[in-house]
Design brief:
Elements: E1 49-58, E2 65-75, E3 80-84, H1 91-98, E4 106-111, E5 114-115, H2 121-131, E6 132-136, H3 147-157, H4 164-174, H5 189-202, E7 207-211, H6 219-236, E8 240-243, H7 247-250, E9 255-260, E10 263-269, H8 273-287
Parallel strand pairs: 3-8, 3-9, 6-7, 7-8
Antiparallel strand pairs: 1-2, 1-4, 4-5, 9-10
Helix pairs in contact: 3-5, 4-5, 5-6
Bound molecules: adenosine-5'-triphosphate.
């Protein structure tokens, strides 16, 4: 491996099962301290998150579906990675496993040195709260809380005092400083999603997972949101993993990882909408045996 950041599905992605050294769930360390530099070199020495020979079978018996069939993937830190593939290729399943929202049938997910499969439910809950950020298609804001309260909710649930200086930096970056006392129903969809992004970034998570984050937004708001996610990567050193069906959305990423039939089928570095479309067409052609 060179000195640059690891690449998805390439550096570290081909590790043999069992070859990955890790510290079990003991490495659950909580969020970075206030003022910590997300771009510190030590954060970039290894992938932010890895999947090793990851298999997920949904259901049992005749109804069993092998949604992931041996995924090897290394997501580099401080990069914006998009996951794409045909419907049913396993994108959502992979995102859920990487984010500790579901258990693997076999294989490993490593967040830093923490193997998620070694974590108890309580440890996974703490890990999701402290080390991972989420941005969903449905903004998932609590309607009775103001924007500011929604942004600070995860920190408060964890019993931590929110880092107000960092919150103000994020709020300024996201352009929602004059909306903090509004409730979600008083905000546009784009503003609600920006509140959700601020909430996801406030805890300085090691990885932000975004699942079709522009799905409920108009084109302009969607592009703004994608710019903001990209800015969080470029300027704050955030690691972002996004599932999307949209080649334009994917073109905001540094790299697109392609899934087909539950396996990594390739990647598109420095994606543009046309290169992503070609890669997707080639995938569908290969699938149809063309
Ligand atoms: N809870 C479940 N029970 C049974 N099968 C499931 C379950 N969740 C997903 N699957 C199946 O697993 C496969 C992968 O599904 P998944 O949702 O991960 O794909 P996807 O690429 O995200 O699809 P889409 O683009 O349509 O959202 C599909 O065949 C799907 O029907």
């Amino acid at each position: 491996m060179g000195d640059g950041p690891a690449r998805p599905g390439v550096d570290g992605g081909a590790a043999a099962p069992g070859a990955v050294r890790h510290a079990g769930c003991a490495a659950v360390t909580g969020p970075l301290p206030p003022g910590a530099d997300l771009r510190a070199p030590s954060r970039h020495l290894r992938p932010a998150i890895r999947a090793v020979d990851l298999v997920k079978v949904h259901g049992r018996g005749d109804a069993a579906v092998r949604a992931l069939d041996g995924v090897d993937l290394a997501v580099p830190a401080a990069r914006f990675t998009a996951i794409m593939g045909p419907s049913g290729s396993g994108k959502s399943t992979l995102l859920h496993l990487l984010a500790g929202l579901d258990n693997a049938t076999s294989g490993q997910v490593l967040l830093g040195d923490t193997e998620l499969g070694a974590c108890s439910d309580a440890q996974l809950t703490a890990l999701r709260r402290d080390r991972i950020g989420f941005v969903f298609q449905a903004f998932n804001l609590l309607p009775q809380l103001t924007a500011a309260q929604n942004i600070e909710l995860p920190a408060r649930l964890a019993g931590r005092r929110p880092d107000r200086a960092w919150r103000d930096t994020l709020v300024g970056l996201l352009g929602i400083g004059d909306r903090l006392t509004h409730r979600p129903t008083q905000l546009s969809g784009g503003q609600q999603q920006r509140v959700a992004v601020a909430r996801a970034l406030l805890g300085r998570p090691e990885v932000v997972f975004a699942d079709e984050p522009t799905g409920n937004l108009d084109t302009a708001s969607g592009h703004e949101l994608l710019h903001l996610l990209r800015t969080s990567v470029r300027e704050l050193g955030q690691t972002v993993v996004m599932v999307t069906h949209d080649p334009v959305a994917a073109s905001f990423a540094d790299e697109v990882v392609l899934l087909r039939d539950g396996r990594v089928a390739g990647s598109v570095p420095d994606p543009r909408p046309d290169s992503v479309l070609s890669a997707l067409s080639a995938l569908s052609g290969a699938r149809a045996g063309i």
